[in-house]
Amino acid sequence: MKIRRKETDTKVDMQMSAMIDIVFQLLIFFLLTLKIVPPEGDFNINMPLGAVSQQADDTPPPLDLKVRLEANEDGTLSQLWFGGRSLGNDFPFCFERLNSEIGQIAGGQQGFSDDLEVELNPDYNLHYRYIVKAISSCRGRMQGDQQITYIEKIKFAPINQPQ
């Protein structure tokens, strides 16, 4: 007597509940092991709010630490001004002069002055590399492997402020 086998579909059923459990366990593992790192290059920069606040009458006027960056039509640096004085447009040497001027005001070799604030006023079409270089020059300098900070507070001038 011959026994015939019936050919059946060999369909494999996947257990979805076990797969979902593994995905959730991996998700929880990665969320719990995530280490949040502060962003690199975090500058203490205050953006303008639109209206300039008025100072109280009993406070002494702050130093004129204003940096003006003028641009050519193609976005390159036309002129760098610091406190009403021209520092030239010979990139990168004009920013070195800015750094030494700020260093003299902030205290020379000791560096860091907590009460000083620099106001940057760049033209709208100026390339960002000049703005970043101005921020770096105002911030401080490197001496070997150590950073010497001159000024931490940097703000941008409001757009509607007269030139």
Give an account of the 3D structure.
The structure is a single chain. The protein has 163 residues and is an alpha/beta fold. The chain has 3 helices and 8 strands; from the N terminus they run αββββαβαβββ. Strands 1-8-5-2-3-4 form a 6-stranded mixed β-sheet, with helices on one face. It starts with 15 loop residues before the first helix and ends in a 7-residue tail after the last strand.
Spell out the blueprint of helices and strands:
Blueprint (H helix, E strand, L loop, with lengths): L15 H17 L12 E2 L19 E6 L5 E6 L2 E4 L4 H14 L6 E10 L5 H12 E4 L2 E4 L1 E6 L7
Parallel strand pairs: 1-8, 2-5, 5-8
Antiparallel strand pairs: 2-3, 3-4, 6-7
Helix pairs in contact: 2-3
